[in-house]
Amino acid sequence: MAGIKSLVKDTAIYGLSSIIGRFLNWCLVPLYTYMFVPAEYGIVSYLYNAVAVVLIIITYGMETGFFRFANHERYSNPDEVYSTSLVSLGFTSTMFFAAVMIFLSPISELLMCAGHKSYVWTLALAVAIDAYTSLPFATIKLINIGLNIGLNLFFLLLCPKIMNVAPWLIDWFYAPDYGIGYIFTANLIASIATLLLLLPDT
C-alpha cells in the first residue's frame, strides 16, 4: 500500500510538472508568431512535431517503467533501477544522435531543412539529452523549462535590442540572421543544463 501511495504521489508531481511545462512552452507561441514570418515559424512547428514522435520512440516508456519498478516491493534497491534505466537510455540516446549525424544530409532534406543542417543536429542533440534525462525529476524539469523560456526571451527579444545600442557586448556569439535557430539553441542549452544538474546522481 505504501508503494502504491508513493507511486501515485510521484506520478502526480511528475504529471503536474509536465502540464505546467507544456503550458509555459505554449506561452511562447505568440512570441514566435510575432517575431517570425509564417514560413519560418512553420519550420519550428514542423520540427517540434517530429521531436514529439521521436521522444516517444527513444524513451520507449522508460519514465513509466521507472515509476513502476522503483516503487515495486520486489525491488528493494531503487538506485539499481535508476542506474539500469540510465544505462539503457544513454545507449539508445547516443545511438540516435550518432545516426542523425551519419545521415544528417538526407534527414535534413526529409525535414525540409537542407539549407539549415545546424537546426537539425542542434535539435537532435537536445532530444538525445532530453531522452537521457527523461526519468522523473519534477524540480529539475521545471528548471529546464524555465531556463528554456528565459533563453528564448534573451535571444529573441533582448539580444536584438543590445545589438542596436552596444553590439560589441554580444557580437562574439550572437548573429541576428540565425533567426529561428536560436529557438533550438535555447532548447539545447537548457537540456545541457539539465544533464549537468543530474550528473551528481548518475
How are the elements arranged and paired?
Blueprint: H1 2-26, H2 29-35, H3 38-59, H4 62-70, H5 78-102, H6 104-110, H7 117-132, H8 138-165, H9 181-198
Helix pairs in contact: 1-8, 3-7, 4-5, 5-7, 7-9, 8-9
Molecular structure report:
This protein has about 200 residues and is mainly alpha-helical. Helices cover about 80% and strands about 0% of the residues. The chain contains nine helices and no strands. The chain has helices spanning about 1-25, 30-35, 40-60, 60-70, 80-100, 105-110, 115-130, 140-165, 180-200. The longest helix has 28 residues, at about 140-165. The model is unreliable at about 1-10 (pLDDT under 50).
Order of helices and strands: HHHHHHHHH
Q: What's the overall geometry?
A: globular
Oligomer: single chain
| pLDDT averaged residue by residue | 84
Number of helices: 9
Helix content: over 70%
Poorly predicted runs of 5 or more residues: 1-8
For the biggest sheet, the summary is: none
| Residue share in β-strands | under 5%
What would you report as the Rg, rounded to the nearest angstrom? 19 Å
Q: How many E strands?
A: 0
- End-to-end distance: 29 Å
Which structural class is indicated by helix and strand composition?
mainly alpha
